[in-house]
Amino acid sequence: MDRAALAPLGLGLAALGRPAYITAHRSADLGADRSIATMRDRAHAMLEAAWERGIRFIDAARSYGLAEEFLGSWLAAHPERRASLTIESKWGYEYVGEWRMDAAVHERKEHSLPMFERQWPATLAALGGAPDVYLIHSLTPDSPALADAALLDRLRTLAASGVRVGISTSGPRQGDALDAARELADSPFSAVQATWNLLERSVAPALARAHDAGWLVVVKEAVANGRLAAIAAPGASGASDAEDASALAVLATADGQSVDGFAIGAARAQPWADVVLSGAVTAAQLDSNLASRGPSAAVWSAAAALAEDPGAYWSARGTRAWT
Questions:
Q1: H helix or E strand, kind and range, residue 220
Q2: Measured between alpha carbons, how far is 145 from 135 in angstroms, rounded to an integer?
Q3: DSSP assignment, residue 253?
Q4: Where does the NADP-dependent oxidoreductase domain lie (predicted)?
């Protein structure tokens, strides 16, 4: 392993744009105050920390609460930086949590042309301009998007305008969804954001095929929503998260890395990865992620035992609490 040229890190705003999310340890990381003003200040601080550390790829989505608005206001304060940044966002989910920690439903999925026509102008307004990359959010094999001729034509028009159009994937059949999008006749797509981590690796062959075809490949959830991050204080997360981190800690220690560094470094070392997203919500977490490096060959071989059945992985992810 130990790829000489690691994929750069990007900053993902999934955990910074809304009060509740499924990432572990949020109480310890964010505290009790999740007001819009406080979360905006935190997002701006993290965007500034990322800029100062050389991160130039930022990921948001319509469903990430006010993430696009937070990013847009930060960009408006620093217009000279925009040309140096790659901004990625996503449509197809909308945030419906009403800024409540205890919302019964936090987001709603709809992959339709009317949804696109509502969300694209909202993205433009929030960001103050077009993103560089715009993805269908969480495309799965049963999504109607790939058979919607009118929607696909609209996405081809968007791609022709200079915006890179793509998909993000979720679920145990990420590879099938990605291959279907890539193999589509006159496909408008040339970018993918997929979940790959030490527990869920099943999409790797499809990502390699996409990379070989010239697609932009972005990795999300490299620390599995906190399952592969530092062990939290007692009571801060579920027992399963602590067990995951404990198992990884043995390998990370042997490799001379932090737990999250080992997990992030494994993703950054994949030959098909172009960008790996950090979901950090503190500068210390971002620094730890940035210190990552590719695992040594011996330790990487041992890490194969961490992989889970994709169905089991996604089933467990679907039951995580929003905190």
A1: strand 216-220
A2: 12
A3: H
A4: 38-292
Residues 6+ apart with CB under 8 A from 274: 7, 211, 216, 217, 218
Cβ–Cβ < 8 Å for 261, 299? no
Q: What angle do CA 32, 34, 40 make, to 5 degrees?
A: 140
> What are the helix and strand counts (H, E) for the chain?
12, 10
Residue 63: CB atoms within 10 Å: 25
Q: List CB contacts of 142: < 8 A, sequence separation 6 or more.
A: none
Segment 80-87 long-range contacts (CB within 8 Å, at least 24 positions apart): 81/51, 82/129, 84/56, 85/56, 85/57, 85/58, 85/132, 86/10, 86/56, 86/57, 86/58, 86/132, 86/133, 87/58, 87/60, 87/127, 87/131, 87/132, 87/133
DSSP tag of 104:
S
Fold of 9-317: TIM Barrel (3.20.20)
State percent of the chain over pLDDT 70. Answer: 94
- Cβ(142)–Cβ(173) below 8 Å: no
DSSP 268: H
**Residue in this structure with the two tokens 């197809």, named with its chain if needed:** 92
Which tokens go with 230? 């530092």
Cite the DSSP H helix spans in the chain.
Answer: 26-30, 36-52, 67-77, 113-127, 149-160, 174-183, 204-212, 239-254, 259-268, 283-290, 297-302, 310-317
Residue from 121, 153, 115 nearest 136 by CA: 115
Check residue 101 and report its DSSP letter: T
Q: Locate tokens 């990921």: which residue?
A: 59
pLDDT (tens digit per residue) in 127-167: 999 999 999 999 999 999 999 999 999 999 999 999 999 99
- The CB-based long-range contact list for 35-38 (8 Å cut-off, 24+ gap) reads 36/66, 36/99
What is this structure's pTM?
0.95
